[in-house]
Every structure is written in structure tokens, then in C-alpha cells.
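Repro:
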Amino acid sequence: MKFTKMQGIGNDYIYVNCFEEKVEDPPLLSKEISDRHFGVGSDGLILILPSDKADFRMQMFNADGSEAEMCGNGIRCFGKYVFDHGLTDKETITVETLGGIKTLDLLINEKKVEKVKVDMGEPALEREKIPMHGPRGYVINEEFISDDRLFVITVLSMGNPHCVIYVEDVASFPVGRYGPVIETSLRFPNKVNVEFVQIVSKKEVVMRTWERGSGETMACGTGASAVTVAGVLGDKTEKSLLLHLTGGDLEIEWAEDNHVYMTGPAEEVFTGEWNLS
């Protein structure tokens, strides 16, 4: 089976062109191929598929084999793959995901995609749509106790659930301790991605992400989108935000049409062949 490894500011995925290849057991393949010691090494597996609703369909699996609704960095690389590999010549495409149909503007340089602007859609703010157990309404600056520590959280969905927490020094914060505990809290029936954020200014933040099923990753596009929305809801940051993630920077805007737009790079790392057992 041929595959391509791609990365968006350090968030890396294995891509399989299912117009040409057949994957019988995606969850198992994702666990095996994502292993950084015995496999190729990645944050997960992304399948490129035909769609009867959009130009393409993206199916995504985390490194632990669980299926995810969406991935901002992953979908940018998806856009680069389908253009650079000749599956489309359109500079604006639509992609069907479990988190809805997303529109991608492909920014071309010398006949290759250099950056991708993604319409991430509208944030879902109601607790039942995230989903999160508790009283109906929004979850903004709500107290949350985890592992005997009190956090103030804002929770929303960008096609997948996110819990945003502000800290004074994100570099030294023990993400590996609190991330998995919050991710698996019984209050989140589908688990949750957790963003730890340090404010630099109203227009700039630094963040780290603990992703469901993958652990701490170098970047998370839906997480950066959620942080932008959470900052506006909590009156901490503006609607246009520069976010410094471990793997690089993203520009996010929560626009007047209530859609969140993300712009960032996408790169192909290498191609190879995987022996299917």
C-alpha cells in the first residue's frame, strides 16, 4: 500500500489515496502505522475518499485507532495532497468530514500548494452539542475540578470537542499530567481535546494541546480555532489572533459571518510503501 506522510506545523499524518488503494481495517492500520518505534510514526491516519456531497471525503483516525470528526492541520495537508498529486486542478475545494463539509482555499506558489485557508465552520457552543454533561447553556469560564486542582474552563465544539484553559506559563505547565485526566473525564461522553493557553496580548497567544487519542501534539488546527472563539467569549483576546503552537504559527479569524477561518502551511514529508499483513 502506497502512503504519503505530511505535516502541518508539526501535526503529522499518514495519507492514503483511496482512489487507488483499499484499506480494510483503518483503526488497526492507524495504530500500527502511527507507532513511532515500530511503524512510520504519526499522529494518525487520514484517508482520501470520493464523496457524493463534496469534491472529496476525509476520514481520519487518531494514533490509538479511534475515529475523529475533524483536524485543521490534517485537512490543510489534505488540500495540498489532492492538488499537488493531480486529483484536482481547482483552487477552492470542498471536503466532507464527520464535522461537516469544509471549504478550502488553496494558496498556490510555483504550481504547488504553500498555504491553505480553511473555513472551519461555525462553533457549537451549547453544552449538548459539544457534548458535555451538565445544565443546558454555554460553558464559559466555568469552574472544573480535576485531579484535586481547580480550573476555569471554556468548552465548545469545532466539529470536535475542545476544553480551553488559560495558564500563566504554558511552557512549564504539566500538560502530560492534567491533559489525559481532563480528556477522559466522565463529563465528556466523547472525551475532549484540551488546550492550555498563555496570553501574550489581545492579538497573540501561545498554546499547547492534548489531543484525544494521540496525547500532546505539536499543533491542532481545530484547537487553535477553539482557542480563538474562547478568547472572544471570555473577553480575553480579539477575533483575529496569531497563535504560536509548538510546531509553528497559525492565523485564525472568527469572522462576522460566525465562521472561523484558519490559515497555515502544509508540507509533504515523504512517500513510501507499507506491507499490509
